[in-house]
Design a protein that fits this description.
Order of helices and strands: HEEHEEEHEEHEHEHHEH
Structural class: alpha/beta
Radius of gyration: 20 Å
Strand order of the largest sheet: 7-6-5-8-9-10
Helix content: 25-40%
CATH superfamily of the largest domain: NAD(P)-binding Rossmann-like Domain
Largest sheet: 6 strands, parallel
CATH topology of the largest domain: Rossmann fold
Number of strands: 10
Length: about 230
């Protein structure tokens, strides 16, 4: 591998940014493609698919054979609110391969007894998310129903372009949330990315069922990145 390409690739990985090492198997030349870089034609379509799936492999494009070595950050889930839904959601997400962190300043809720073996922060989101910023390989689920806790985290998630942003609450609750987020500087386009009411519409009623709906929606958001603008995802 070209030492410069290796240096570039390692820098992207350290920064939790996706990159693909594209190697022309005909002449051995390689280059690093960052997510968002423009690559035209058949190779571009293959690169886009690799970014979406995280799968590496060889592809035929423009009469040549390339090997795409995909390096995607591990997607993670940040949950705002140490509530009953979170108790069901955290172990489900871990089984699905999503590391989980839970943030809730209410120390009566954010306890290791209620969330064993989960990264737990009994602090305000303002403190935690300044120390550990969100990124576009993070899903955020705001579940407290408390604007003092949820709103900052939602705005931070929108600004960080998190791949999934969901918020618990009725449509009436969300309408008031939209007003507050607009006042805080969020744009209408950003706010339109929030899934509210949170979770796929499967008729979920219990905390565990809502957790299933939230996780499924987050996984769908991750696996369909880049397809929405092409009309390939409903």
């Amino acid at each position: 591998m070209d030492p410069y390409a290796l240096k570039t690739l390692n820098a992207e990985r350290r920064a939790r940014r996706a990159a693909i090492l594209v190697t022309d198997l005909g002449d051995g030349r390689d280059r690093v493609v960052r997510e968002g870089d423009r690559v035209a034609g058949e190779l571009g379509a293959a690169v886009a698919k690799a970014f979406r799936t995280g799968n590496s492999g060889s592809v035929e494009a423009e009469g040549r054979t390339f090997f795409l070595n995909a390096h995607l950050p591990q997607p993670r889930l940040v949950v705002i609110g140490a509530v009953h839904i979170s108790q069901a959601l955290a172990p489900m997400a871990r089984i699905a391969g999503y590391p989980v962190e839970i943030i809730d300043p209410r120390t009566a809720f954010a306890t290791p007894d209620r969330f064993p073996d989960i990264a737990l922060h009994a602090e305000w989101p303002q403190v935690v998310l300044t120390r550990q910023p969100l990124d576009n390989y993070t899903a955020l689920a705001a579940l407290t129903h408390d604007p003092k806790i949820d709103d900052f985290a939602l705005k931070a998630a929108l600004d960080a372009d998190c791949f999934y942003v969901g918020a618990l609450g009725s449509r009436k609750t969300h309408a008031k949330r939209v007003e507050r987020l607009l006042a805080s500087g969020a744009t209408a386009d950003q706010i339109a990315r929030i899934h509210a009411p949170i979770g796929l519409d499967i008729g979920a009623a219990s905390p565990a069922e809502i957790a299933v709906a939230v996780l499924a929606q987050a996984i769908h958001a991750f696996r369909s990145r880049g397809l929405e603008s092409k009309g390939a995802v409903a």
